[in-house]
Design brief:
single chain; mainly beta; 9-stranded mixed β-barrel; two-stranded antiparallel sheet
Length: 254
């Protein structure tokens, strides 16, 4: 542990600092595209669940816009669902530390192209999934295009995203900032009864690649309650695949 902020905080590590024995969920994340902007910790703090504070680096925290393909979402160690468990998703995420020093993601929204996983994840895991029309397209020269528009009542503004990147070479040695933005081994979420819980995960070390941003139109970050990002992202990264297991929720400092 290292000291920072209000108490001891676990270090940023390239592998999970805690095991996941009994798997709650299994899934594979494909074509993960990370866009990150600096964010004011004071703006992020009110959006975090109780007992979680912004995770800062040199006085700054970050907001991420992350489109990817979910594949083979399943329960326990069983096989993933063949249709309902495979879909594109875009999430807006910030980073927090709980009172036990556990670093994790806090999702502000998870835009998902399958309605039943949206309903199930909202009910069972209390995660802010929302139904969206989303597509992924590949192009020449290693380009990748993500488009998304939230599905909702007519007459209301629907948050949209359009992100196009060109995937580059594998990163041999990610920087400290790149580890900080991607090496997150759990998530914090508000739970039943007003509690905040931590869902740990394990997967292989991120196989990060450089990526060039060719196009970015989005109003999803502002729809989550943060100021709209100003200018280009500070960091654009890509990872082709990681296979993930989530463990049961942890309420205390385990």
């Amino acid at each position: 542990m290292t000291e920072r902020g209000e108490g001891p905080v676990e270090p940023v590590t390239a592998v999970s600092p805690r095991p996941v024995g009994r798997a709650l969920l299994t899934q594979s994340w494909r074509d993960v595209t990370f866009l990150h902007w600096p964010a004011d910790p004071a703006a992020v703090a009110p959006l975090l669940p109780a007992g979680v504070r912004p995770d800062v680096r040199d006085g700054t925290t970050y907001v991420g816009l992350v489109p990817f393909r979910m594949r083979g979402l399943g329960f326990g160690r069983g096989p993933g669902l063949p249709y309902l468990g495979t879909f594109p998703e875009t999430n807006v995420r910030v980073y927090g530390v709980d009172r036990w020093g556990r670093r994790g993601v806090v999702f502000l929204t998870l835009e998902c192209a399958r309605l039943l996983p949206v309903l199930g994840s909202r009910a069972a895991l209390r995660l802010p999934y929302r139904w969206a029309s989303m597509r992924r397209r590949t192009g020449d020269g290693g380009t990748l295009l993500w488009t998304s528009a939230r599905i909702g009542p007519r007459g209301r503004g629907r948050p949209v995203t359009r992100v196009r990147v060109r995937v580059g070479e594998r990163i041999a040695a990610p920087t400290d900032l790149e580890h900080f933005l991607t090496a997150r081994w759990g998530l914090h979420t508000a739970w039943y009864g007003g509690r905040t819980v931590y869902l740990p995960n394990v997967h292989e070390t991120w196989p990060l690649h450089r990526a060039e941003l060719l196009e970015c139109e989005e109003d999803l970050v502002a729809a989550c309650g943060l100021p709209a990002p100003g200018g280009a992202p500070l960091s654009v990264l890509y990872a082709p695949r990681v296979d993930v297991r989530f463990g049961p929720p942890l309420a205390g400092g385990r």
